[in-house]
Amino acid sequence: MTPPPPPPGRSRRAPAASSPDDDVVIDARHVIPRAELSARASRAGGAGGQHVNTSSTRVELLWDPATSRALTDIERARVLEKLAARLDAEGRVRIVASDTRSQKQNRVLAEVRLAELVARALVVPRIRKKTRPTRASTERRLETKKRESQKKQDRRPKHWD
Fold first, then answer.
1. Does domain 16-122 have CATH number 3.50.30.50?
2. Which of 40, 50, 112, 131 is most buried (CB neighbours < 10 A)?
């Protein structure tokens, strides 16, 4: 007898990017080659009992955006500027994952976090176009100023000459 299948939308497996040969997909145009990533596993704290003392499940993922072939020069400059606070002394982005008891799942989590981080850094904000205030907004602002001014004048002592 086989166990029932998982509910729709839920899988028992880790995300699809868990294959060690797969590259890290940031978006449709950007893919970080697996060769540019270096990962280290170390012992993690937290739940797991005695098992946690003997297994290296914490994953530290390192990526050097300055030498990456996945980015153009403009994108590289943008990523280095946006992620400057996240860079280590060698200029690498460091992502740590120790959420699960599985090294494989933690590596996938670290790769997903890296992809999200780089995707956010690549977003170019829209340039704000200068516009004139509307007549109604100017009138509202002036009316508010008059009311505030009147309120403060009313607080002054009255001189009855």
1. no
2. 112
